[in-house]
């Protein structure tokens, strides 16, 4: 409300860009398809607004009145989905990766270096990236580079004990990952008996099975 109307688009683009550089997720909810509260079709300006949000680097676009109180909530979601898919297909992912690398503050922390190297290798022909996480930081760093391939984020619960009771971390990392574009979070089953190597083997096999249903799991 305090920004002059002619500068709103600049503020929006600046905030999205700065969030992209540091790997913070961006949710854009600015009356995306408001005319669809009463109409079967959005205006051309609204459709363009959704597409530009995706092109600028937004992770998530959000409907409010269109789906909460509108006459055509399902159609509004389907139209927004089609616009997002079309906009993503026109992105230059190679240029995005180079810009991210150029803008990353120096010195690069080891985790950032690992994430960027993973993306660099994946861009040469990988079909899927599998990331094993506890809190989600690594997967989010990989996702910030806006890959063309999906990132399967296997969230491994943390099991702790005080010698009397066992407790398991909740599914918060899975829920949070849903907001980041490109991340497909899966909550795997934790085990207190299996070694780390054994758990990793089982989780990787499950990830490969999910990505290729025709591939049988090894016994």
UniProtKB/TrEMBL annotation:
Cofactor: K(+)
Keyword Magnesium carried by entry: yes
Subunit and partners: Homotetramer.
Domain of life: Eukaryota
Sequence similarity: Belongs to the pyruvate kinase family.
Pathway(s) the chain acts in: Carbohydrate degradation; glycolysis; pyruvate from D-glyceraldehyde 3-phosphate: step 5/5
EC number of the protein: 2.7.1.40
Pyruvate kinase C-terminal domain sequence ranges: 112-207
Keywords per UniProt: ATP-binding, Glycolysis, Kinase, Magnesium, Metal-binding, Nucleotide-binding, Potassium, Pyruvate, Transferase
Catalytic activity reported: pyruvate + ATP = phosphoenolpyruvate + ADP + H(+)
Domain Pyruvate kinase barrel: residue ranges: 1-77
Naturally occurring in which organism (per UniProt): Trapa incisa
Protein name: Pyruvate kinase
Gene Ontology molecular function terms on file: ATP binding; kinase activity; magnesium ion binding; potassium ion binding; pyruvate kinase activity
Database matches in InterPro entries: Pyr_Knase (IPR001697), Pyrv/PenolPyrv_kinase-like_dom (IPR015813), Pyrv_kinase-like_dom_sf (IPR040442), Pyrv_Knase_brl (IPR015793), Pyrv_Knase_C (IPR015795), Pyrv_Knase_C_sf (IPR036918)
